[in-house]
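BUG: 3D viewer hangs when loading the predicted structure for this chain

Environment: internal workstation, default settings.
Expected: structure renders.
Actual: progress bar stalls at 90%.

Input used:
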Amino acid sequence: MGGKAAILLVLGFSLIFLVLGRNFLSLTTRAVDNEMIYYNQAQSYNIAVSGANMAANQIFIDKTWSTGYTNLTIGEGTVNVFVSNNTSGTSGKTIICHKPAAQLKKL
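Structure tokens produced before the viewer hung:
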């Protein structure tokens, strides 16, 4: 009976370690995927903010600037910045939009 019990014990532990190993591998893979998603979102946000800040600086320097930026390469991405003067109101505010043209059509 000792030999059969030893084999069952070894098979039981092998099965337990196989399941645990698979779970740890899956956890590692998900962690890398989550990091890549976070990195891409952070890069997109930083590129958009940089484009808006550059446009705001140009407007600060020249109040009549309304050219905007088209396909401006910043880091690993590109940004389009559109500038529009608010002529309907008396506030004198300038609207800066840094969304790509494809997203503007959805709005």
